[in-house]
Amino acid sequence: MAKVYRDDLGIPHIRATDAGALAEAQGDVTARDRGWQIEVDRLRAAGRLSELIGEAGLAWDVFARRARLDDTARKALAGADAETRAFVTRYAAGVRRGMTEVGGDAAEFRTLDGIFGDARPLEPWADHDPLGVLHVAHALFSTFPLLLWRQHVADTLGDAWVDVFAGYGDGGDGDETLPSSGSNAWALHGSRTDSGMPLLAGDPHRILELPGVYQQVRLACDEFDVVGLAFPGVPGIAHFGHTGDAAWGVTNSIAHSVDVFRERLRPMAGGYEALGPDGWRPVDVERTVVRVRGGRAVEVEALETERGTVVTDLRPDGGELVGWSIRMPARTNADLGAGALLRLLRARTAEDVVAAFSGWVDPVNRVLAADRTGTVLSATVGTTPERTRDERRLPLDAGTTLPAADRAGAAPRAVADVAADANERPADAAIDLGWAYPSSHRADRIRVLLDDLRPSSVDGFLPIWGDTAGGSVAALRAMLPSGALPSRAAATRDRLTAWDGRMDAASAAAGTFAAWRAALVRRVAAHPALRALHRPHGFGAVFDPWLGVTGQVAAALARLLEHPALRDDVPALVAAALDDAADAASWGTTHRLLPLHVLAEVPGAADPGAGLDVPLSGDGDTVRCTGSTPGVTDRAWRGSVARWAWDLADRENSRWSVPFGAAGDPASPHFADQLAAWTDVRPVRVLTDWTRLRSDTPTGAA
């Protein structure tokens, strides 16, 4: 038996007798609240999104089938321990009920029926579908698309340019202009707090999808009572949770967790062979047809070599073909880390949290965990191949390189004062598992703020979440000329020189800086030295976001301006960009929220996020992450998809927020009722008193 309660924000609080009933109720509630969203993600995992939204889903479906995401989820469920398998299947059963009763009637499905002139009945969820959704949440969250970008740089400009575009020289720290991807998290030991108990806080950075990436939820039964942020469509609470006695949060470690191999293939009767260290070996071939709603069906060949699935288009090379395969630990080991889901709910100590994550797979995360005994731990969890730093730089040659053994995480360390993680290169070589990292600016800035502000309760975290000091400002202002300039350019330079470097929405100077940076990016991207980089990359449309030249130029702008091939032209480029930016408006005029809803990709469909384009402070390299793509758009399409702070002394002192709301239905009052508080960085307190919640019996699982 299970009952559902709601707080004033519509957040579900579920109470059941046991973990199985709770999982089923969570699936039911999620289907009712987020039916459209989880069906989209289920179809993404299956490579069937085109059946729902037409041509707009085709590029993804091709990738999903080539990567065999659905098959991996099936195998992961079959290989899970009995308790995990039961937990997942009970959740799927709840989804089936919730979709039948409420979720399947979501307005978006009716909109698409009207656009395409047909009715597409929904199919019941299979037991493995929740693991497919978990896989989709992480499939492109590793660094492997960036290896394809670096391959493209090497092929077009030459190997020496790879380090330039990675923001590296001699293997040093990341360039100040590298994009900030991942998350922020910090921990205070009890010796720093009013209560004497630890505090944890942070905010994950992902695409600002609508409905939101995370679902605020409370899961309670006779065994445990946990609040946290769940992936809609996945049982339990994976990334951020508070069990009352223990709490945790994660950031992306930017580890090299997926090997990429350059494969030589030759067609054979009925299939292919691939060249490996042991010679030419058969390739497993799976041919399927993608049914495209309103369009022509497309056949997909999914090739899998002894190293991994070939996820790119194939290129002719003499009488052979070339493609790139990926070795994902989740597929190789038929394990998506789902065994951690129930163990995390049962955690009572920081050690329990780390032990639960010992089976985590991908992406590799840094975990901060704390408990009511005062223990604070930092751990790196997940599976990576045993590769040297040099082997992480570019795709490997399949003909000469054997698959590597896997390594799992690293031993945790105790935190005696403060800790801050923000995807930077770690000082500890044992957990330096990547190749290129974002700048250390956010992590350094959080540490400075913790030292300067000395917060001793969660109330003191608001100015940290909201900090807008730009990480790339100093590196780019160093390029400003000091001599005579035309009047417009000189006025722009003077405005930038006098500016405090904060990316506030109301700041005219911040708007000028962003306009100057964008103009400079566009001019550098068009420079003759980079002309070859604009050739089609040929890997497949799904990788376009990672291989857009303008966006990658923005990521490495300061280093490119120092390169000998561009150096002589820099004064003219800088001056021309200053003139371009002379009439820029305040930052918030153009830096506005861009919530990404799947319907926005479908011709003829109204975008449910069209009216949510509020002005935003922050930038991609500020602690208050609101990332755009300089030179392409000022709209913020990536940022803090949740903010959380866990108080180990009193869980009701904890805070949380999401960008939009608890409901996925655009007609619901809870569709975007948290947007204003999120924009102003005002997370609300977590409510756990059952007597202050309203009963929502019709939504509960009986």
Summarize the structure in short.
The protein has 702 residues and is of the alpha+beta class.
Describe it for me?
Helix 17 packs across helix 19 (549-555). The protein is globular. The strands form five sheets. A ten-stranded mixed beta sheet has the order 22-18-17-8-7-6-5-2-1-29. Strands 3, 4, 23, 24, 25, 26, 27 and 28 form an eight-stranded antiparallel beta sheet that branches. It is an alpha+beta fold and 702 residues long. It starts with a strand and ends in a 7-residue tail after the last strand.
Instruction: Sum up the overall morphology in one term.
Output: globular
Helix content: 25-40%
Task: Give me the Rg, rounded.
Answer: 25 Å
Q: List the quaternary state of the chains.
A: single chain
Average pLDDT for all residues: 94
Could you list the spans in which at least 5 consecutive residues all have pLDDT below 50?
A: 168-180, 698-702
Annotation field: number of helices: 24
End-to-end Cα distance: 5 Å
For the largest beta-sheet, the strand count, sense and barrel status come to: 10 strands, mixed
Strands of the largest sheet, in order across it? 22-18-17-8-7-6-5-2-1-29
Give the strand content. 15-25%
Number of strands: 29
Alpha-beta classification = alpha+beta
